[in-house]
Amino acid sequence: MSNLEWVPNRSSQLPLHQQIYAYMKRKIMNGEWTIGTKIPPQRTLALQFNVNRSTIVTVLDELVADGLIQAKVGRGTVVMNNTWSIISSTPPPDWRNYVKSGTYQPNQSIIQDINNAESRPDIIRLGTGELAPELLPSEKMKKVFLQNKKHPLSLSYTEPKGDLYLREQICNFLKTKGIAVTPASILIVSGGLQALQLISLGLLHKGSTIFHETPSYLTSINLFQSAGMNLFGIPMENEGMKIDLLGQLKRQHNGALLYTIPSFHNPTGVSISKTRRKQLLDVCSKERLPIIEDDVYGDLWFEQPEPKPLKATDQQGLVLYMGSMSKTLGPGLRIGWLVGPEPAIDRLSDIKMQTDYGSSTLSQYAVAEWLASGLYEEHLHHIRKELKIRRDLTLQILEKYFSEIATWNIPKGGFYIWLKLNMDVSMNKLFKKGLKEGILINPGNIYDQNDSTHLRLSFSYATAEQLEQGLIKLADLIEKRND
What is the pTM of this model? Predict the structure, then answer.
């Protein structure tokens, strides 16, 4: 059962427990909560409805009396629909079996908890990998749509690879990174996640092995696993992925692709050095191992630009290059791009047309105007300064409250600080205790299931006051981990 989006109206004359009872009964009677649906624990319901636990107990007792729910040993409270009107009618389909039959694997439970908790207005988000609302250029975006431009706004479907004008602007933008490409080699996608999904559907067969850094953002999503792929992690060090065994591993495991985030890696914040980028490209070229280069953080440097992307020196069409506006201009735009050899882009664009018939034309228009007008470069300049201020503040807070319990890196860009605790902790317990205290963290075991010492801290979302308040609470929880 997902996070409940309804809360009772406290100004209503109807008592809170009656409002909640009516809401839950309606969900059951309308078939939204089918037979076997598990009702969240009392504490969770009290938190989501913002009421006392005793109010929830009253509601659940009434639903039990009505024959709508039942407490089962080992399963918690589940929907039963034992009312006479439903017993006497044709039984509804068992949607639980349909859900279990789906080929796409569910998110880890902790990822689901994070996704749900992010909607809570009272939560301090210490791990969220996106820009804070106040850093997003909402007012300037409105003006872009109101201005009269030579390039018309179309509400029709675009061609399979995306709006040509946008792809031309992306070509110009990529030139500043040393990447020479034509519009025919660019596919507009609905964010980087869609690019990865299209690759898994269109370029790989089941059983393929995907190499990635360990830890990795890739292990926090089940995208490749749901497509029947195997993930194989390669350890990291200060300069990035250890590549000395890459050739041997490729042959042993029949590696199909290497996924890497060379600049301001998620979750560690590490960047691959210029020397190692060349070595990585040389090894992959020799082994004929294609690379997915995820460069969504590459523009967010603080003091100086990152080394050129792998794609900039790719002379063999080895690299599929991913870029996105989600980390810079706004995640809600859902606009990114994939650059690669034309045969691969043609194949993926055909699959994209089968799945969604093209990304939003409104978003494509907006991004094209931001790139063409120079607004995007101005915005990047502003965001870099703001993120650096937030990074420096976070480092100051860590120095004051975490110096005896943890160590950390100093990222030169991006969103993340990879915090290493000086002791092993139960990540699940720490996560749950954090939620009770109103702080949301991203434990390291999301990115490496064997990790019990790291946390991914983000300085891009929480306000200055929230960062200090949240980190102080976190330090206290870590020090009291055995309580």
Answer: 0.84
